[in-house]
Write a structure and sequence with these properties.
alpha/beta; Rossmann fold; Arc Repressor Mutant, subunit A; 2 domains; 6-stranded mixed sheet; 50% helix
């Protein structure tokens, strides 16, 4: 099933992907009442990818269990056809593998379906801004995976032309610190940190901090000593 509604003007444009009609329609209704423009719904990996290409939503709420695949597969498909979209997983599962699969496929955040309406609204807004949002406890799980991979030998075939300072900033970005927090730790100005982040994004051909964090995790560039 696929349903595409008329797009709004200034409101954030949201797509809801879930194969349970009552839940999907309820979430869509709640978001509409909160002022979001729910431009589409979908109930499968195939539908999510096709509809995302057509409507280019700002934020996609993604379930992890779909009839023709996983939410991770749907997330990858959506971002392949609509790279400016951001994906927030909204799932009943708190399984470690599901959370990590979602992040590795490009999801910006992960909420469980027990989240309150106000939490969901805040999470959608934060996701649209590129901020990583996780249900309490899950952020620690993801950070733990960062640290585990950081302890493994770094791959030698992926060393880009980053300066020592850019690499240092990247390690902190991967732990979720803001530019102000990184600046305080490195005794730099926030603007200087942002300049390093921007330069790193350009060199690695990445779009945002979430992609930087994922790159760092995949290439062993996280800092296991950072709290």
């Amino acid at each position: 099933m696929t349903d595409i509604s008329a797009a709004g003007s200034a409101a954030l444009r949201v797509m809801v992907v879930d194969d349970h009609p009552m839940w999907r329609d309820g979430v869509a209704r709640d978001l509409t009442e909160e002022g979001f423009d729910v431009v589409a719904t979908a109930d499968s990996v195939a539908a999510a990818t096709a509809v995302a290409q057509a409507v280019r939503p700002d934020v996609v709420l993604m379930d992890m269990q779909l009839p023709d695949g996983t939410g991770a597969q749907a997330t990858a498909g959506v971002l392949a056809v609509s790279p400016t979209s951001r994906v927030l997983v909204l799932s009943a599962s708190e399984e470690r593998d599901h959370v990590l699969e979602a992040v590795k496929s490009g999801a910006t955040g992960y909420l469980v379906k027990s989240a309150r309406r106000a939490e969901l609204v805040d999470a959608v807004n934060a996701t649209a801004e590129g901020t990583a949002v996780f249900t309490p406890g899950l952020a620690g799980l993801v950070l733990g995976e960062y640290r585990r991979i950081a302890k493994e030998p770094a791959r030698t075939d992926t060393a880009p032309t980053l300066t020592e300072r850019e690499t240092e900033v990247l390690r902190f970005v991967a732990t979720g610190l803001t530019s102000k927090q990184i600046a305080e730790r490195l005794h730099l100005s926030p603007r200087t940190v942002e300049n390093h982040v921007g330069a790193t994004l350009r060199k690695l051909h990445l779009g945002n901090r979430v992609e930087l964090a994922r790159y760092a995790m995949e290439h062993g560039l996280t800092d296991p000593d950072t709290p």
